């Protein structure tokens, strides 16, 4: 636990380098003086692991020790933080596993403190993982940043409202020292929650800006297309009659024969093989023409 508290103090000292800039301009982007968010997340994860080990040792502290003498038990009772007759119930609720002897060894308030610190450092680790994704991951990682910050926001809100650890809830019993510690932890959680909300809103705005407006979407709509390419209509060739192959060939032959006959009638050689047509025969156009006696 002492090592975890020292790690916690080192994290706070590291983050004080950019405390002024973060207070003046909170949220993204991070100031240049701010330490690496990836480093901050790893430090918080290690701190949570140390507190988890300390809590595991605290829960099993009395299992491997001999029974206390009456004098030692009385001294331990004075060391307890004034929880009165609720110690027995508190120890069994926390999973101490022994009853009165375990409560004399480790008071429930200490276990609640360790549980609260585990939850806080896990939430802050998720916060800085989200900030690292938003700052160094590019536009494609903005959604990941929003996801981590949403996770951190939910954990801190659970701690603010009491959560599963129970250490943040305001109880009816306890000394003034306990109440001061609870109020201090609650104020710390509220401050961390406010910082997470600022980063969450900033990265969510950036993530929403990736979605283009409707006018841009309308301009990018392509033209439609047919499922099957359209082919030009070709008139079928008839099997017979006008337009058929036989008909076209016959007409071509007739035109050719007419052309040859015209050339033979229009001109001939000087010898004249065909007899000359009398002029009156060419001019006769009635019955009996040329048959004059």
UniProtKB/TrEMBL annotation:
Gene Ontology cellular component list: plasma membrane
* Stretch forming the signal peptide: none
Q: Where is this region: Disordered?
A: 63-104, 258-293
InterPro entries recorded: BRO1_sf (IPR038499), pH-resp_palC (IPR037505)
Residue spans of biased composition, Gly residues class: 82-98, 259-270
Q: Which GO terms describe its biological process?
A: cellular response to pH
Instruction: Name the source's superkingdom.
Output: Eukaryota
Task: Write out the biased-composition intervals (Low complexity).
Answer: 284-293
The UniProt transmembrane annotation reads: none
- What name does UniProt use for this protein? Uncharacterized protein
Origin organism is Hermanssonia centrifuga
